[in-house]
Input
Amino acid sequence: MDNTADHRSEQGWGEAQLRELVLRTLSDLHPGEATPPVVITDNSSLDRDLGFDSLGRMELLLRIEAATGVGLPQDTLEKAETVRDLWTALQQGRMKPAAAGGTAATSVVATPDRPRDTVPASHGAPAWTSARTLLEVLDAHVAEHPDQVQIVCLADQSQTPITYRELHDTCAALAAGLQRCGLQPGQTVAIMLPTSPAYFFTYLGILRAGGIPVPIYPPARPSQLEDHVVRHTGILTNARAVLLISVPEAMQVSRLLQARVPGLRATHTPDGLIAAGQGHPLRAAPVKADDVAFIQYTSGSTGQPKGVVLTHANLLANIRAMASAIEATPQDVFVSWLPLYHDMGLIGAWLGSFTVGFRLVVMSPLAFLGRPRRWLEAISNHGGTLSAGPNFAYELCLHRIDDASLAGLDLSRWRLAFNGAEAVSPDTVTRFTERFAACGLSSTAMTPVYGLAEASVGLLFPPLRRGPRIDLVDRAVFESQRRATAASNPTALRFVACGRALPGHDVRIVDDAGAVLPERIEGRLEFRGPSATAGYWHAPEQTARLFCDPQGEWLDTGDRAYLAEGDVFVTGRVKDIVIRGGRNLYPQEIEQAVGDVSGVRKGCVAVFGRRDAGSGTERLVVLAEVSPRDRQHVDTLRKAVAHAVVAAIGEPADEILLVAPHTVLKTSSGKIRRSACRALVEQGGTSAANNSVRAQWLRLVGGALVLRLRHSLARLSDLLFGVRALALFGLMAPVAWLLTMLMPTPAMARGFCQRAARLLLYLTGTRLQVQGLEQLPADARCVLVSNHASYLDGLVLVAALGRPLAFVAKRELERQWVAGPFLRRMGTAFVERFDARRSVADAQRMTEVVQSGQTLMVFPEGTFVAAPGLLPFRLGGFLAAAHARAPVVPVTLGGTRELLGAGRWWPHRAALSVRIGAPLVVAAGLEPFAAAVQLRDRAQHAIGRGLALTEA
Output
């Protein structure tokens, strides 16, 4: 630090020189215009006062580094809001070595711990071909090559290698720390961390402790603080997160979230958890293939974020399919700057390399955004064979890396440059390939792909070594008839092929009625496969809309596409396409054209449709950000934007709104949130708002206090509910017990208990939702099987199902002096859990119950525990169904564990649900035991799928 200060002093540098450089850069960014009439002070805002967009800020940082010889901290691009912030960053910077290519860019020093050609040959096969969970993958790698480096974290001039052994040991310590903090299996834990070694330890540590990771993005710029907190409050509330793990620098934001999110008990740092777990035993938490591996909240480009439920089985199926499609081997090297809170970075880059066993070289997204050349330097220095980015990343490299900086870059080993996560531009694909061919980049390296969180991450990959394929189609025919007719005229639409479905997966194009369309006809893109999610976390209605067919086999991607010669061409989001006068207008094309207008902030344009009741069609709206200085020429700018729209689509826009920076809403990955922008316009929210950090903090703190008051009132309401429920149960239970005992037959006793159960739920105000009653067979000869979560499960099922049930209960209850007589009067079949010989006789008795024409109700887990999820299923009820040749009906109970779980006697308010699944029939030709095993596995899968969506 002293050397840096001396160097600045020698150069005569001070705050005055910094302000002068800021003014000169601002003038150079607007050549031919008069110097802006502004006085630059320490408090001048770079965007609000001076109009620096993100590219202008990058140019300014590069000039500061070139002028001072000081490397600014790599988070300066995001954190520096004012001129004073730039001076502070300069004070914290470090002297840089001579830059490659004569530019101010610094090269990452390549000092890998092992020569890149001597990576061990395929030791990873057992891990990624037979493992059932990510933890089994880790254990297998540790058993075979514990000291193999899996991750290299790049930061400034340093790099930190992480071996499989270190991943294993450190995540175990963190898991023990989580358990000491009270984390129970199946509970959700939010990860709000930047890219760092701690991220990898935290993710695996949560899994090792039995929890469910919920990645969210850390706070970025202070000016976006309010939007960050509001969006994450919704995510964490939906996820029902109990803990939040973040860095010390974000603790203020973490506490705000804790104040706003019910059930979020505490916030911790990774280092604190690791220290707390050191030397403490880790309680084994069984993890199965169908357990949730993490909840991926979608970016929300067309609406509110939704939590995609992804299991270990989903992730490993997707990774294996992608590895097969790209012929991945342990000798590959993946270089990534992609955020780890996004599926492309977390699954595609890290978990893919982690599973197959090749190295991941990872850097912060801020390092890339601050200086895009760092990405290509890392590929060059570390022999990267695989890397990925959205289209804007390749465009950024084209704009921000000059020809002189190409010297010294070796991209000859980069065999696959994945381009996905947003619309792929044909121009970008072509120009990037041509420009970087001088660095050895193969003409077939650029690889447009397609995926979505609902398919884990990847879905469509092109054939290897083919290169990009661009389709030119007649604009008029496509927009009016949705037919992709080949054309070569200058106005033709261009679409990039995203490839074919991954191995083991299927895609199809259908019309609005669900009928499969022929080639070159645009429709909705649907998919199926082992990577597909079971649905959205705690969002049954959204889950129902996700599945397209009655069998729940095909999922809707939300995108439109067409097929041509085996390739899928994605044309746009269903919700984003504007239909005006019978034409389908595609926002991306218009946004790109408007973004090229001088004075408009590139990448900050939203195009969407607004319903026009008068004309019966949609109005085309263009929302474009312009810098404060350019707003002085608003009429000229509006005319230029109007001309760009006409040039792009041949028709004018109905509305052009020129707004201040940071008005256009984006996702965490930088995609335009068009639906949110439409709502913003309709609510009149595009005018300049008080967005100072101080004002945001005041609003957030005030909102947190209001929410705290609401939570306190909710807890009081819950307390009163418990008092009322216990009082009613205490009054009704003795009467119900006595009247049940007086009933002459079990059938009458069951009917009375059903009415009493419904009355109790009604009087306590407990809502009970029942779905699928039509699935119950008309013939009473069937076996109902349900998950077991509470003492009240039987009561809820009796109230919900509307037919007499013969329950199966453990024999210990028969000997209880209160429960025993009551259950015997209800006709309950008691079964032995510990004496094998009596268990066989009990199974025979259950068979006789079914054969006699009754409906048998079984809790195959045999007992229940406080932790959510399923215990192993016992075979007794399924054997009874197999012997009686009767169907098994899976029933999923929701909310009873929350109402009155194991070890608790105080009830809490909860919404109850009973979901009845499709009957499972005994397979023809199977002997009874084999049939019972098959029925058990199918029922457990059906109930587990329902639980994954309804129970935290």
User: Anything to note?
Assistant: The longest strand covers residues 600-612. Residues 295 and 309 are 5 Å apart (CA to CA). The radius of gyration is 31 Å. DSSP finds 31 helices and 35 strands in the chain.
